[in-house]
Design brief:
The protein is α/β, with parallel strands linked by helices. Helix content is 49%, strand content 19%. Strands 1, 2, 3, 6, 7, 15 and 16 form a 7-stranded mixed beta sheet that branches. Strands 19, 20, 21, 22, 23 and 24 form a 6-stranded mixed beta sheet that branches. Strands 4-11-12-13 form a 4-stranded mixed beta sheet, covered by helices on one side.
Length: 758
């Protein structure tokens, strides 16, 4: 038996393995994820429902309901102004009777109260006669003789069609009247109907006083229950309260308006399908709810109760309208959140629901919506899984984007034209997760292949080449491409003396080299540079390859300045260490040459070993420029192309026109003397002006003027807080001028300096 079970498991695992090899592990994993997500959609847990209803909210925000030009509903608002004039709530029933009388005079078609009157009027004269202490018998008899306020209100209710509000209760509430309470009749058509299972239910129902209930033309529950996130989206038309099926306020208003005695509830196996009144059928969800299509809060719906009682409402303002009496007062706690408003009075929600029902503007979610959404999800996701090997990541993204656009359009079209809510978010989210699964598994497979390449070639190829080879194995060949690059050479000056200092301590020399090469390397790499090679104490680097860099000249300049700053920090640290240890220290000084031009860059070498490097005349010139830094007493020497590219942002000064060793054509060379802030400063502007005057005087053979200008430049450079280290440059020009005063150059002298050393 055990052998059979083991064989069965092996058979299943073998089948999965063969299937994975046939369709690919990525597609197999994506298919499994799709099945799991479809099961989640069918189960419809709260997070999925929350995502769906927020999508429906977004549709309403994008296209809120446009109210009809002639609105069939109005609201008499017991607002703050009314409470201020007539006193705090609750008002006496005689004042409410006066509201009914005013509305009857105004020609209102139906009046409905978004209020429940479950207790006797505490200000009714007969009740006061029994409760007020210290009354004389004459006063008490006079109060008893006055009419009961609740009966006055009931008589006013009986003179016109009035629907009273009721509210659901969390505990059973006993009916205090004689005989059964009046209620709206309901009839069920369809399959066997179980209100306990189908409808939203409450243990109790708080009714109005019996005298008021019997006088009213209708009664409806005004309880509005928000969803989990506190937003009102759906409102039940019928619910179960106190053991019986009762209509909500809006539905019973319509029943009274149509003259019907009974509500016809149509059902099927899933629950409620629709509710029918004469000439009106309202589709609902299985729990008897409808989605309200909201318009933004509209103050134009409201008439202040104060204005109504004072007779200042225009004569036709309420004629032939369904009038809801309620409150917008914050203190009476009847405000709710809707998809469009953070705070909307509950009475306005009932008014908007009534307009939905009267104009046919309700929203519906078909009972088969789950199957439709699951089918769309499966179809799109399966298409992506099937086409994955053909389309590739970008093709899948474009295909998925096209399908996503169609789903979004379908959702919008059904909402805007038919009021049908179709959730596109779950198909989109599922499709996106399937796409990510395919992309991730493909990425994982590629990364595994790259690791194999690194393991195979990492021992005898340079790390840079191994990484490029891992990213694109097809690049494993000799050759290169022509590209405009910025090349840098840096070298430690006087390294021979340093090596001599460490002649008995080779480990110390190695540690020192690592100590200064590391920060210089970081300065280059931090600014998108590529290290070509280390040559003892020298570094060769370049920009704009292998990755393109549109600002390669600027990045090279920034790297050079950072290298000098890091060398200063290193020298300061070494001096502190030397003082603490009581031993001498030789400071490190670096010279940098930078040049820009067209070079060949790529994999250079032999069939046995090659590296990513750069060749070309600009490389040789950059090397020669670095060698001139010591002669001119500066840290950085720039070629003309580099200087032209950065002079708009960096402070650049011309050094000389030089014919470097190995070149016939002279090069105009420059130096970089600071950062971008110094370039914009007034001291640099003064220095640049005096420096240009010195160069001009030198080339015009005005040697006394050259000496004076060099002295002025040197003094200004020493004053600057920038700490310019170019004193040697001006000492050089002063010495040249002094020499030419003693022995002038030949007539054919063109101002070009011939470099005799590399």
């Amino acid at each position: 038996m055990r052998t059979s079970a083991v064989s069965g498991r092996r058979g299943i695992l073998g089948l999965i393995g063969r299937l994975g090899r046939r369709v690919g592990p990525g597609r197999l994993l994506a298919g499994g994820l799709l099945v799991l997500l479809l099961l989640v959609r069918i189960a419809d847990p709260p997070p999925v429902e929350a995502l769906r209803v927020r999508t429906f909210d977004a549709l309403q925000v994008l296209a809120p309901r446009v109210p009809p030009a002639e609105r069939p509903v109005a609201i008499v608002d017991i607002d703050e102004a009314s409470l201020k004039e007539f006193g705090q709530w609750p008002w006496t029933r005689t004042r409410l009777a006066a509201i009914c009388g005013k509305l009857q005079e105004a020609g209102a078609a139906i009046v409905a109260f978004d209020i429940v009157f479950s207790e006797p009027d505490r200000l009714s004269p007969p009740l006061l006669a029994e409760t007020l202490p210290d009354l004389s018998e004459a006063a008490r008899a006079d109060l008893r003789a006055q009419p009961d306020s609740d009966r006055v209100f009931a008589e006013a209710i009986g003179r016109m069609p009035v629907v009273l509000g009721q509210t659901a209760a969390s505990t059973p509430v006993a009916w205090t009247g004689e005989g059964p309470p009046p209620q709206t009749g309901t009839a069920v058509v369809g399959t066997e109907f179980d209100p306990e299972r189908a409808l939203i239910g409450f243990p109790g129902l708080i009714r109005n006083l019996p005298v008021l209930e019997r006088a009213a033309a209708g009664r409806g529950v005004f309880t509005i229950s928000p969803e989990r996130d506190g937003v009102v989206r759906r409102v039940p038309l019928v619910l179960r309260a106190g053991g019986t099926v009762v209509p909500t306020l809006a539905l019973d208003i319509l029943r009274v308006a149509t003259g019907a005695d009974t509500l016809l509830i149509r059902t099927d196996d899933t629950g409620v399908v629709s509710i029918r009144l004469p000439e009106l059928t309202v589709p609902t969800d299985p729990r008897g709810q409808i989605w309200v299509r909201f318009s933004p809060h509209d103050p134009g719906l409201y008439v202040s109760a104060k204005d109504l009682l004072n007779g200042t409402v225009p004569p036709d303002r309420l004629r032939e309208k369904i009038v809801l009496v309620g409150t917008s007062s914050v203190g009476l706690l009847d405000n709710r959140t809707t998809p469009l408003d953070r705070s909307m009075p509950g009475v306005e929600i009932h008014a908007q629901l009534l307009e939905n029902l009267l104009t046919g503007a309700t929203l519906t979610v078909p009972n088969e919506a789950t199957l439709i959404e699951a089918g769309a999800t499966a179809a799109v996701s399966l298409a992506i899984i099937l086409f994955a090997p053909i389309l590739g990541a970008l093709g899948l993204l474009l295909f998925g984007g096209l399908v996503a656009g169609q789903l979004v359009f379908l959702s919008w079209y059904r909402f805007s034209t038919n009021g049908i809510l179709f959730d596109a978010t779950f198909p989109l989210l599922t499709t996106f997760l399937v796409y990510l699964t395919l992309v991730f598994t493909n990425y994982f497979r590629e990364q595994t292949g790259r690791k194999r390449i690194r393991a195979a070639f990492g021992r005898y190829l340079s790390p840079a080449l191994v990484e490029q080879l891992a990213l694109s194995p097809e690049s494993l060949r000799l050759g290169g491409e022509e590209r405009r690059l910025t090349i840098m050479f840096s070298d430690v000056r006087g390294f021979t003396a340093i090596a001599e200092f460490y002649k008995d301590d080779p480990a110390g020399l190695t540690a020192l080299m690592n100590r200064f090469l590391t920060p210089l390397t970081h300065a280059i790499l931090d600014r998108q540079g590529t290290i070509d090679k280390y040559m003892g104490d020298a570094i060769m680097a370049f920009w704009n390859a292998p990755l393109r860099d549109e600002a390669h000249e600027h990045h090279a300049a920034a790297a050079a300045l950072d290298m000098l700053a890091r060398m200063d920090a290193l020298n300061a640290a070494r001096r502190s260490e030397a003082e603490a240890g009581g031993h001498p220290v030789l400071p490190l000084d670096v010279g940098i040459g930078i040049n820009t031009g067209s070079c060949v860059v790529g994999n250079m070498g032999s069939d046995l070993r090659f590296d990513y490097s750069v060749l070309g005349d600009p490389v040789n010139v950059a090397s020669r420029l670095e060698g001139q830094s010591k002669l001119y007493g500066v840290k950085i020497v720039l070629g003309a192309a580099t200087a032209d590219a950065i002079r708009d942002r960096y402070p650049v000064l011309e050094l000389d026109r030089v014919r470097v060793k190995g070149k016939q054509e002279p090069e105009t060379v420059f130096t970089l003397v600071g950062d971008e802030d110094f370039r914009r400063s007034e001291p640099f502007a003064r220095l640049a002006e005096r420096h240009a005057a010195m160069i001009a005087a030198y080339r015009a053979r005005r040697w006394d003027e050259t000496r004076a200008a060099a002295a002025a430049c040197r003094a200004l450079a020493q004053e600057l807080a920038q700490g310019l280290r170019i004193d040697g440059l001006y000492a050089l020009y002063a010495a040249r001028a002094e020499a030419f005063l003693r022995e002038p150059p030949p007539e054919e002298w063109d101002g070009v300096t011939v470099a005799t050393a590399k």
